Amino acid sequence: MKHIILFLTIPFFQSSFAQDIKLFDNIWNLHNLSIGGNNYIPPSNDEVNFVSLNFFEPDQMETMVCDVLSADVNFTGLDQFNLFNAGSTFDDCQIQANTDFEILYLDNFFEAHLNDDFNYFIEIDGNDEKILTITNSSNDQAIYGDHILSSQDFYSSQFAILPNPAKNELFLTSKYTSGTLTLKIFNIEGKLLSTQTLEVANKTSIDVSSLTSGIYFLNIEDENGNTTTKKFIKQ
Which InterPro entries does the UniProt entry name for this protein (predicted)? Predict the structure, then answer.
């Protein structure tokens, strides 16, 4: 049996704007959550396959991890809304990582800002897919797409290497702002050539001058065990 917790808020509307049909035409899947400048990848496991956000008639919103958060939506301006009459089920996650993410997403991002306006922006990416970015009053952001993005796809998108091909120096750019990374370089035969651990920076220089010309792979691993691999060419 599900229990429901209600968060009673009394809205004071100065004006009411028409609903944005673009929000209601899609089922939005969470790609990334940014809280306090730190990025968090949504869980993808046996208990939580993905985190979705739905807007539906008449002016209501629902999102869930294990608990389901539902609320009425009031559009207070162009690309702006607030939430009221919010309620949440009481379905505890059994996996600790899901519980931790649920606190960040439902409690910190949404429920802590029920009396404030949320700003949003919808754009089309290079693959003709819609991207929805919602920003709360603390400037935290939740980024959704109208398609399901695997955690591996998202993690890979956080890094880029340049120039490619490289001569003496390879630069790793990162969207992460804190933490440590372990970088490993492998040759095309899979042999490990070098390993280094460093603090995350927006742009990191990697010395590749000692490598002979050919194809190599840079494996990137963060302190949470997330990994991705980038291919580069040494001239």
Answer: Secre_tail
